[in-house]
Amino acid sequence: MNNENKSEKVYMALPLDELTVANYQRSLSPIRVNKMNKAFDVKALGVLVVSDRDSKFYLIDGHHRVELMKANGIKEWYCEIYTGLTYEQEAALYHLLDTGQKQLTPLERFKALLEAKDADALKIQRVLLGEGFGINFGGEGNNRKLVAIRAVQTIYADVGANGLREILQFIDETWNGNREALQDIILYGLRRFFKERRGDFDKNTLVKKMAAIPIANAIMHSKKYLGSREIAFAQTIVDIYNSGKRTKKIKPIN
Question: For residue range 198-249, what is the model confidence (pLDDT) as tens digits?
């Protein structure tokens, strides 16, 4: 976490109604609160982590526990209160904290990184937006909206912004951003294919052949190969490209 601004912390009880939830928090899940309530034990609640900023108390860690306490009639609770944190530092701390109750999902982690103004996360977002894509933080894929953010982060770390941009452009040209083409198996498969067979194929031919095959069929074809799903789908791309060709075939993926 950025320590440019000096922060201090104190411990004291605060009224739960005075706690504010910031945008970096995961969305509240009533189902999760109900599940926690079935095993409610006041001794296991722990302290809440709060930031005192701009005359408000922002809840960094403990969103679901606060709702659980309210459901059980608790009006105030013990808090670890930080002073001197910026919004970005709060988001970074939220990203780092793990109280053992529930790990952040990849989408929740990425959202927190964006709120913390993490350089790589912001760069990924710029690449996505630049190619006409977005992220669906609700967890449901839509056309041109990604949920496989872990795959995107892995690809960015491996081949950089240009490599990620190349994959997004191919998905746009081939499937017009169809949400089925934004699955992790396809993202990883395209990364492997472009890395191993760059310069060995005609892009226009590949786009036409891949577009002619239903995405579900291509994924089903990949299942006949053993090994990782990434290699299996990369080999499927090779198979589709080579179909009907007598010469200038692409070599199999290693």
Answer: 999 999 999 999 999 999 999 999 999 988 999 999 999 999 999 999 998 9
pLDDT recorded at residue 2: 43
CA angle 75, 29, 142 (to 5 degrees): 150
Q: End of a domain among 51, 74, 102?
A: 102
Q: Are 92 and 116 in contact (CB under 8 A)?
A: yes
Residue 96 belongs to a domain with what CATH number?
A: 3.90.1530.10
**What pLDDT score does 25 carry?**
84
Nearest to 58 by CA among 32, 107, 25: 25
Number of domains in the chain: 2
pTM above 0.85, yes or no: no
Asked whether the beta carbons of 195 and 154 are under 8 A apart, the reply is: no
Alpha helices in the chain (DSSP H): 30-38, 63-71, 87-96, 106-115, 119-130, 149-175, 184-197, 203-211, 215-222, 229-242
Dihedral, CA atoms, 168, 173, 174, 179, nearest 10 degrees? 50
Domain finish residue from 71, 102, 133: 102
- Calpha distance 131→231 (Å, rounded): 25
Average pLDDT, the chain: 89
How high is the pLDDT of residue 28? Answer: 87
**Range of the structural domain that residue 43 is part of:** 8-102
Q: Which of 246, 48, 27 is nearest to 139 (CA)?
A: 27
